[in-house]
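Section: Multi-chain targets

For targets with more than one molecule, the full set of components is provided together so that the structure can be written out for the assembly as a whole rather than chain by chain. Components appear in the order listed by the source. The example entry contains two components.
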Amino acid sequence: MGLSMNLTAANDGKTTIIITRETRIDAVNATQFKDVMREIINDHGKPALLDLRYVDFMDSSGLGALVAVHKAMPPGLSLTLANMTPNVERVFKLTRMDSVFQVLPTQQQENG
Amino acid sequence: MMYPIDRQKADPGKLAACETWPIFHRVLTASPLAIRETLCDIRNRFTKSTDPDTLGRLELVLAEVLNNVAEHAVPRHGGLAVKDSPTIHLSIVRTERGFVCAVTDDGISLPDKCLQPRNLPGFEDSELSESGFGWFLIQDLTQTLCYYREEQRNCLAFSVPLARAVRSS
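Its structure, encoded as tokens over all components, is:
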């Protein structure tokens, strides 16, 4: 089942900035999302920032995948989440996971 | 010049809108892909009649309920599935106050503990839980959640209130 996971990573010198073009992180792709995230983070060896602006839906499988990535962060490296959409923010707030992760407030976006 | 009388101006459109709330019905196999497709169709079905917050809560609850069937309702023996994935019947009615949903499936019984009040899973960073959020979310986002077993089927019914009702409660 070669589902491709649309994740791209860029380096700004200090941080690995990961952006996903997946619009849903759910029971279909959560495991793969977790695996690719871990691979990117391990390959770059820097603190990571995950930009979630395109993710319009996340269920508890997606949340579980992010918790797993957070727990598996290499020692000393942080995982920060940015640009959560309202549907993603809701899952984090209801489960109090917004207090476990570093979350950057969503920017007022001009560039979409 | 002709002026429409008030009655004509006010009534027909509104009455029609009140009497024909949208509904959604689907029979699907309990598989992650079929569930995802169904959730997208539900969003399209109700997006015109519902605010984004209510729709987001509905989608999340349904995702948790349906994925739970896909993950846990398959009859297993020694870890291996001994029957095909259950078939789910899903009905959703939009009402004045929100959504009323009925989900039935021909999988194995739902354990009682799913419906008992629960707390969030472990919070210590060292043993942060990666699962166990599903039933917490279902209980948190629904009203009048009820379950019964009828012959070979699980039946789960619940309502998801409109955003306005949530804020004022």
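DSSP finds five helices and seven strands in chain B.
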